[in-house]
Write a structure and sequence with these properties.
Helices cover about 5% and strands about 40% of the residues. The protein has about 180 residues and is mainly beta.
Length: about 180
């Protein structure tokens, strides 16, 4: 059985834990979307800050190119002062600031499930329709979007969707057909 759908949204998060942006097209490489989570805010010791412990990160705004992002505070204060973290600064993260997999894919149907959690940081949002199987049933399947191919893996602990590894990169565009095929 092949599941057919449409790519509805592409979300890029150049800085870990900071709001991202919605794109109409993006390049997918071996490490995920180009520019995704390539930077993080770090403290004076170089430790990566996360929104769970530093919720003020969610109040920052992105500026600049995703490969060389800049951050703006809502009140114009210095980053370290706004976050109340001595020495806080924006820094590139070797290999990216992803914690599990290069891509997080979620469907509109999965987002509507009662225990869906917050999947707002998923990279790819797809729409399949009413006959969509549960996400757990799609683990191990391949997902083709345009010329790109993903291998669907495990589910995130606290939100809907599936993590994915990139088998073949390519350019993704909102409106692209999505085809999910069982293994083999």
């Amino acid at each position: 059985m092949t599941l057919v759908g449409v790519l509805r949204e592409i979300l890029l998060f150049p800085v870990k834990s900071v709001p991202g942006s919605s794109l109409t097209a993006a390049e997918l490489g071996p490490d995920g979307l180009l520019g995704d989570r390539g930077h993080a805010v770090v403290d004076e010791a170089g430790r990566v800050l996360a929104a769970k412990r530093n919720p003020a990160l969610r109040g920052l705004a992105l500026a600049g190119d995703p490969l060389e992002p800049r951050l703006r505070t809502p009140d114009g204060t210095a980053l370290a002062d706004f976050l109340a973290v001595p020495g806080a600064r924006l820094a590139p993260v070797d290999g990216g600031a992803r914690q599990v997999a290069p891509v997080h894919l979620v469907s509109l149907g999965q987002r509507r499930e009662p225990d869906a959690g917050d999947s707002s940081r998923a990279n790819l949002v797809v729409e399949f329709g009413a006959d969509e199987p549960p996400a757990a049933d799609l683990q191990g399947w391949t997902c083709s979007i345009g010329a790109a191919v993903l291998r669907l893996g495990g589910a995130p602990r606290h939100c809907a969707g599936l993590f994915a590894q990139v088998a073949t990169g390519g350019v993704l565009r909102v409106g692209d057909e999505v085809r999910v095929n069982p293994p083999g």
